């Protein structure tokens, strides 16, 4: 498990609005205008939140004409779930194995 990457993703998810955006995108691809309709903030604020999610690799973007469409990066979300299960496991062997990898 890459602890730095995991922490970066968790930091991106530390804002309730970004978690809500992730929840919205779990239903399918949306354009920025559709996302913005659900919030009481400006387009630049949405851009900031989207940038954080893109940087954490939780969201992908596809430009179609003049519109940006955002989708959930399902592979990354599945990895997050796997990492969380791994992180919360009580198996000492896994913890020690990760500690040894970090020392190398």
TrEMBL record:
Residues covered by the HTH arsR-type domain: 1-92
UniProt keyword annotation of Transcription regulation present: yes
Any one Pfam family match given in the protein's UniProt record, by short name: HTH_5
Alphabetical UniProt keywords: DNA-binding, Transcription, Transcription regulation
PANTHER family in the cross-refs: ARSENICAL RESISTANCE OPERON REPRESSOR (PTHR33154:SF18), TRANSCRIPTIONAL REGULATOR, ARSR FAMILY (PTHR33154)
Name the UniProt record assigns to this protein: Metalloregulator ArsR/SmtB family transcription factor
Keyword Transcription regulation belongs to the record: yes
InterPro entries for the chain: ArsR-like_HTH, ArsR_HTH, HTH_ArsR_DNA-bd_dom, HTH_MetalResp_TranReg, WH-like_DNA-bd_sf, WH_DNA-bd_sf
């Amino acid at each position: 498990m890459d602890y730095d990457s995991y922490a970066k993703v968790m930091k991106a998810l530390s804002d309730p609005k970004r978690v809500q955006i992730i929840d919205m995108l779990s239903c399918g691809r949306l354009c920025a205008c559709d996302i913005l309709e659900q919030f009481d903030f400006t387009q630049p604020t949405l851009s900031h939140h989207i940038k954080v999610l893109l940087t954490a690799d939780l969201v992908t973007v596809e430009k179609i004409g003049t519109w940006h469409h955002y989708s959930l990066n399902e592979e990354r979300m599945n990895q997050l779930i796997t990492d969380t299960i791994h992180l919360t496991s009580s198996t000492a062997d896994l913890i020690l194995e990760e500690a040894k990898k970090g020392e190398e």
